[in-house]
Design a protein that fits this description.
The protein has ten helices and 20 strands. It is of the alpha+beta class and 419 residues long. It has two domains: 279 residues, Rossmann fold (3-Layer(aba) Sandwich); 103 residues, no CATH class. Strands 2-1-6-7-8-9-10 form a seven-stranded antiparallel sheet. Strands 11-17-18-5-19-20 form a six-stranded mixed sheet, with helices on both faces. Strands 12, 13, 14, 15 and 16 form a five-stranded antiparallel sheet that branches. The chain starts with a strand and ends in a 16-residue tail after the last helix.
Length: 419
């Protein structure tokens, strides 16, 4: 479970910002909290929404966590001298030469971890991993000045592993690849339990959902229930498989969609059809099948998200997703968020963090679940702040106040003529 994520000097963010899932003392909407004995006295939020004007930096929060995870997972593959694909804040020349910093705090198997690093394009400057096995901080490793390490356990083994870690590679990644267990455990959470979907990746989950249904036919019934609940006019979705023909094989060994059929190299082609109720020539009800590409963009988007959403809810993962509401009716967006608040649908402590412009959700969420991004007019950097900073009354209409500009994070349009 995620507690908080912080970063600075990355893309449009100059100064340190922190997105926290720690709940306030607010007693409303108790169903939005994760409460387990291992978290006392720290209940966590199941969801958090980030609002803001276009170009305010909302998506950069997602890009930061996406970079953070990708670099951890793939750092060990880099060669000596390879450039780290990091982008510092560019509107201040003093920041370009400074390292970017990232930190995440999370709970895995009832143990709290804190991991962070700072890096520029050439090297890792600092890196650390702490855990709290008995409620008190214990050092797994600390790295300063790129090559100066501190270890409190397995000193001989870790010293050897650190000597194999070049300046542009994360020790967390390197040590895990050499099967060091104390880094492998948090690495596994970051690899598997932390899921990030940026705006250009949403439709790629169409293949994920199709594959999930193909490999687990029992899941089709679950997806069909979701589709019926969403009132999309679909009675059932059908999944069929066939052996691939040579012309259907994807290039470069990567699966791709052709005519809405997902090809898995050397295995099978998955075809999706939806069933609707129509009428025959005599006016009697008849089941009719549509090709999946004949469905609306919203239906395709909703279906593509069902796979990752079910996966996250089932396993208690953390999901970051950019612009959740795009192509979706506000009721469908509300439906997806409500899945995480439901104690029945979300029995494993899954969390959802998303950016959105859907103001209908503002009166559904707790005050501590709402965040805003706004550009600082003095230096062009992104500020991230919580609705809690405004201490709104419990009976206050948050949506109305936000649209009126009471909390900032909205565009201010000029009233002059353009032509």
């Amino acid at each position: 479970m995620l507690i908080e994520f912080s970063f600075e000097n990355f893309l449009s963010i100059k100064d340190k910002i922190t997105l926290t899932l720690l709940a306030s003392k607010d007693t409303t909407n108790d169903h939005s909290l994760i409460k387990t004995p291992s978290l006392k006295p720290m209940p966590l939020l199941k969801t958090a929404a980030v609002y803001g004007a276009n170009a305010s930096g909302k998506s950069n929060v997602l890009k930061a966590i996406s970079f953070f995870k990708h670099f951890i997972l793939h750092s060990h593959k880099m060669q000596q001298g390879d450039e780290i694909k990091i982008v510092p804040f560019k509107l201040d020349e003093n920041c370009i030469a400074q390292p970017s910093r990232f930190e995440i705090v999370f709970i895995f198997d009832r143990v709290r971890y804190a991991y962070g690093f700072s890096a520029d394009k050439q090297k890792i400057h600092e890196e650390y991993l702490y855990h709290f096995p008995r409620g008190r901080q214990a050092v797994i490793f600390e790295r300063n000045d790129t090559h100066r390490y501190t270890f409190t356990a397995d000193k001989k083994e870790q010293k050897e592993l650190s000597s194999r870690t070049p300046q542009n590679i994360l020790y967390l990644s390197s040590a895990t690849q050499w099967n060091y267990q104390k880094t492998a455990i948090p690495f596994e959470w970051l690899r598997k339990h932390l899921r990030v979907v940026t705006s250009h990746e949403k439709m790629s989950f169409l293949g994920f959902t199709a594959e999930m249904l193909s490999q687990n036919p029992g899941m089709i019934e679950t997806v069909n229930r979701y589709l019926l609940e969403a009132d999309l006019g679909i009675n059932e979705i059908k999944v069929s498989k066939e052996a691939p023909r040579q012309k259907d094989m994807p290039s470069a060994g990567n699966g791709e969609w052709r005519e809405w059929r997902h090809t898995f190299p050397g295995t099978e082609i998955i075809t999706l059809h939806t069933q609707h109720v129509g009428i025959d020539k005599q006016g009697n009800e008849k089941n009719l099948f549509f090709k999946f590409e004949e469905e609306s963009d919203g239906t395709q988007k909703f279906f593509s998200l069902l796979g990752p959403f079910i996966d996250v809810l089932k396993n208690g993962y953390v999901l970051f997703i950019d612009e959740l509401e795009v192509s979706l009716h506000p009721h469908l967006t509300k439906f997806l968020v409500a899945l995480f608040h439901s104690p029945v649908q979300n029995a494993n402590g899954a969390q959802l963090i998303f950016t959105t412009h859907d103001t209908n959700l503002l009166n559904l969420l707790r005050r501590d679940q709402v965040w805003f991004t706004e550009k600082n007019p003095k230096n062009g950097s992104t500020d991230l702040y919580s609705l809690m900073e405004f201490s709104p009354r419990k009976d206050q209409n948050i949506e109305k106040g936000y649209l009126a500009g009471r909390y900032g994070a909205v565009p201010f349009m000029g009233g002059g003529n353009i032509l």
